[in-house]
Amino acid sequence: MTSNKRIEAFGILGEHLLSNDNRLQEIIEEASYQNPWFTRENVSRAILAIAENLTVPALSLWVSGYAVDHAPKKTVGLVLAGNIPLVGFHDILCCLLCGFSIQLKLSSNDKLLIPYLLDKLQAIEPEGFSNKIRYVERLADVDMIIATGSNNTSRYFEYYFRNIPHIIRKNRNGVAILTGKESPIELNALGHDIFDYFGLGCRNISKIYSPKGYDYSPFFEAIESFSAIGNHYKYHNNYDYNKSIYLVNGDEHLDNGFLLLKKDTHIASPLAVVFYEEYDNAAALQDTLLKKQEEIQCIVGTSKLSGINTIPFGQSQKPALSDYADGIDVLEFLVGKPED
User: Fold this and answer.
1) Angle of helix 56-63 relative to helix 3-17, nearest 10 degrees?
2) Are 53 and 60 a contacting pair, CB within 8 Å?
3) Is the pTM of this model over 0.90?
4) What residue ranges define each of the domains in the chain, with the CATH number in brackets?
5) pLDDT tens, 186-197?
6) Nearest alpha-carbon partner for 98 in 76, 125, 80
7) Which residues contact 201 (CB under 8 A, 6 or more apart)?
8) pLDDT attached to residue 340
9) Which of 128, 237, 258, 331 could form a disulfide with 1 if both were Cys (CB 3.0 to 4.6 A apart)?
C-alpha cells in the first residue's frame, strides 16, 4: 500500500471527525465520564485540532520530504501519555503513514478516544491498517520505541529501552513573552494558551516573562472570560490548595479568583498557577531562554529574539504537522530523509 493511499485514508478520517457522527458524540460523552479532565469541550477541541491537520494536501506536503515509501517495514512501540485528549495521535500518525506496524500502550486516562479513531481508520482502509495496530500491556519484539512520560518515568524508559532506537520524552512546558505592548485581544488569546485543557498539556503556558515593573491588571482583565474554569471541581481544588500554601507560607502572589501568579524562576508551575519572571532587556531574556530550552516546549509572543522561535498568542494548542514534540523530528527518526 502506497503512502498516497494511506494519506487518502487519513484525509477521509479527518472529514469524518468534522461530521456530526452520533457514535463519535457518544464516545466524547463516554470519555468525559471516564476522565473528569476530558470535558466535552476539551475533547472536541482536541478532535478539531487533529481534523484540521488531516487533509490530503497538508499530509502530502508534510511527508514529501521523507523517505516514507522506501524504508524497510518495522514495528514501533508507542507508550502514550494521557494528560490531554488524544495527545499521542501525532506519533501514531507518523508511524502509520510510513507503513509501519505499531504496538500501543495506552494511558489509563485515555482508553476510548484513540481506539475509536483507529477503528474508524481501519474501517476506511482495511487492507492498509487492519493488521498494523495492536494494543498491548507490555511492548515486545519492537524495532523502535517512542515513549512519553514524566521526568521520573523517562529514566526507567532510557534504561529499559537502551538497546533499541528510541525517542524518550520528558516534562516540558510552554512559556509566554510579554512586552507590555500587547492588545487586550492578544492577552485574551494568551488565556487559551494557559487554560485550554486546564493547563495540563506540555504546550500550555506555565511561565510568563514580563518586563520589569509590568502591571498585570490588563492581563487579568483580558482573561476574565475564562473565569468559568474555576467552576470545575478538580481545577478548583488545585487552585484552593495552592492558594492555601502561598497564604500559609506568606508567599507573595497575585490572585484573580481562578488563577494564581507567583514570581518564580522555575518553568513548570503547579496546576492553576502560572509563574512569572521579570527581565531587564531582550539580551538577558534571550540568554535565559536558551539556557532553559530543554525545559521549554514552545514559546508564545511577538518578540523577535535571535535563536528563539515564537508562535502567536492563542496558537500553542494548535500545532502544525511539523511541530514535533521536544523538537525531535519523528518522521526523520522513523525513515530518514530521501537521498539527494
Assistant:
1) 140
2) no
3) yes
4) 3-170 (3.40.605.10), 173-300 (3.40.309.10)
5) 999 999 999 999
6) 76
7) 83, 84, 87, 317
8) 40
9) 128
Q: Which grid coordinates belong to 19?
A: 461530521
CA distances from 326 to 50, 124, 150 (A): 19, 32, 13
Residues 51, 18: contact at Cβ < 8 Å? yes
Report the C-alpha gap between 331 and 40 in whole angstroms. Answer: 31
User: Rg for the chain (alpha carbons), in Å?
Assistant: 21
pLDDT band at residue 296 under the 50/70/90 scheme: very high
Give 262-284 pLDDT, tens digit per residue: 999 999 999 999 999 999 999 99
The DSSP letter of residue 302 is: S
Nearest residue to 318 via CA among 188, 150, 193: 193
Run of H or E including 222: helix 217-222
Does position 339 have pLDDT exceeding 60, yes or no? no
State the pairing for strand pair 101-105/75-79. parallel
Q: What would the 3-class secondary structure string for 48-115 be?
A: HHHHHHCCHHHHHHHHCCCCCCCCCCCEEEEECCCCCCCCCHHHHHHHHHCCCEEEEECCCCCCCHHH
**Confidence band of 292 (pLDDT split at 50, 70, 90):** very high
Grid coordinates given for 23: 457514535
Is the separation of the CB atoms in 293 and 170 below 8 Å? no
Reported as half-sphere exposure (CB side, CA atoms, 13 A), residue 209 has a value of 24
Q: Is 152 exposed, middle or buried (0-12, 13-18, 19+ CB in 10 A)?
A: exposed
Q: Residues near 285 by Cβ (< 8 Å), separated by ≥ 6?
A: 177, 209, 279, 303, 305
pLDDT digits (tens, 9 = 90+) for 300-338: 999 888 889 999 999 999 999 999 999 999 999 999 876
Q: Whose CA is closest to 48, among 14, 84, 90, 75?
A: 14
- Enumerate helices (H) and strands (E) in the chain, giving the number of each: 13, 11
Cβ 175 vs Cβ 207: under 8 Å: yes
**What proportion of the chain, given as a percentage, has pLDDT over 90?**
87
Residue type at position 145: I
